[in-house]
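Recall that a protein's primary structure is simply its ordered list of amino acids. Everything else, from secondary elements to tertiary packing, is in principle encoded there. The following example makes that idea concrete.
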Amino acid sequence: HQRDNRRLIETLLKLRDLGNTLIVVEHDEDTIRSADHVVDIGPGAGEHGGRVVVSGTLDDLLASDESLTGAYLTGRRSIALPAQRRLGNGHEMVVHAAAENNLKNVTVGFPLGRFIAVTGVSGSGKSSLVNAIVYRSLAKRIYGAKDVPGRHKGITGVESINKVVHVDQSPIGRSPRSNPATYTGVFDKIRTLFS
């Protein structure tokens, strides 16, 4: 979350001010803009990368014609937002009185058939809501899973849901860089899009 990110950047700058050298691997715009020196590796991913495109100041990065990072930071390139958002299927799943960890007896609806982002600062209850309550409850209902869901009064609107998949950033396979996107081949399409 942006608030957490700002705090992290402030802490990193304080560590630098104490005479430390900090090397951070980061894609976040605020972090890149706060750095004293930027090393941009690319220009693309996989076989299209592996070279130092820029090693210098933020201004050097922004002025580079070869840097994709610089092109996106300056607005020379951008990702188009959809002109119209998907309406979904008209059904809604509602979690009632979620009270796990930091959740304060909240009731929230999730429109089905849509892409839903659950956001908030670190420790606000995102993982408790999604992982401990929604996922575990659906896995128990659909598959008979033994994990106990987090505290809540109930979930309505689940009749049309017949499958639930928990995707996290844990590596799949032998490589620690593997994740569901790389494993299923979806990341190949993402790489192509940005090449």
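The first strand starts at residue 38 and ends at 42. Residues 126-143 form the longest helix (18 residues).
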